[in-house]
Amino acid sequence: MEKVVHVPEVVLNSGYKMPLLGMGTAACPMPIDDLTSILVDAMETGYRHFDTAALYGSEEAVGRAVAEAIERGITKSRQQVFITSKLWCTDAHPQLVLPALKNTLGY
């Protein structure tokens, strides 16, 4: 029998539910394939909230892990995964904000 993991959530002003337990990726200086594998393993154990930032160098691994988790049936869709990222202070100038956000979103 499959074990169901329940993680408490908070409802945001937008109406979306955010899991209160998340996995940070700040201290993960490793090859992208290794980090992707670790993140997929985390999703198998129940994690659905991941924190990243362009500065961490982990955004691509988070994206790859979500895609793999969907492909493997670990999660049904991207909408079931909550991802937080950050606009780094060096990009907080009016002319840099939009390019930085587009980079984070993969545009």
From TrEMBL:
A Pfam family that the UniProt record links to this protein: Aldo_ket_red
Record-annotated NADP-dependent oxidoreductase domain positions: 22-102
Domain of life of the native organism: Eukaryota
Alphabetized GO MF terms: oxidoreductase activity
Listed SUPFAM superfamilies: NAD(P)-linked oxidoreductase (SSF51430)
Gene3D superfamilies: NADP-dependent oxidoreductase domain
PANTHER family: ALDO/KETO REDUCTASE (PTHR11732)
Name used for this protein in its record: Chalcone reductase
Organism listed in the record: Solanum tuberosum
